[in-house]
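Hello forum,

I keep getting stuck at the same step: I have a sequence, I want structure tokens, and every attempt I make locally crashes halfway through. Rather than fight my setup again tonight, could one of you with a working pipeline run this one for me? It's a single chain of 172 residues.
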Amino acid sequence: MAVAIYNSTTINNTQTSDLPLQEHNMQTITAETIMDRSPLSFRPDSGVIVALRQLLTASLSGAPVVDGDNNLIGFLSEADCMRGALMGGYFSTIGELVRDRMTTEVESIGTNTNLVDVAEKFLHNNRRVLPVVEGGKVVGLVQRRGVLEQLLEQIDSKGEQVEYRKKKRHFS
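Reply #2:
Ran it on my machine without issues. Output:
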């Protein structure tokens, strides 16, 4: 349940009311809210080393691979680039293309996927980035870090003391 909260301000002893602020919870925050709307993406015929440079510059662990119509066709991660970088460093050979290294079975989320489901998706795969797809087209990118920041914001917004449970250790 979302609750509308009005932000009131007193100016010159006169009470004013701004537009309602929406109180969000983990079910109402969606991928669309937290996604990067201009994500880095690669074409399959790009060079792996060029793609790796772009990943490192953007501080991303991976990015979607798209066709000419921006349809998701794969995903290229730092790990996928490792062999190309190793070959380039060892043999001075850098001829591999993104299509040679990309993963073709890609997990993605929709714009309406809520924060809880996005977090669950990250818990069950070993990715740090998920493409956001609508109608087969990449419309954004959600990073695990962004989800963690949103979760912390939810904790902090409650204004309650967080209680930590001690884990019992068993020694044998």
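The longest strand covers residues 14-23. If your local run keeps crashing, start a new thread with the error log.
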